[in-house]
Sequence to fold (76 residues):
Amino acid sequence: MLAVVERLKWTDERLDDRFGNLDTTLERVEERFDRDMRELRSEMRTGFAEQRQVMYRLFGGLLVAMVVSTLLHGGI
Fold:
């Protein structure tokens, strides 16, 4: 016994519609990804700037402490 399988016809118009929808979806995904990456870069820039300030303050304090200690206790 042979099974009869109905064959679907994919016309050029139907393929264009299907892939047109896919293109639209991919464009939205790409736009969202680009926006998210810009936001992430901005957040990282801000965070790294804050970390640099903390490091400069700590290093500055350490440097001042070493200079004062050297002056008070004489020489290295």
Summary: The chain has a mean pLDDT of 88.
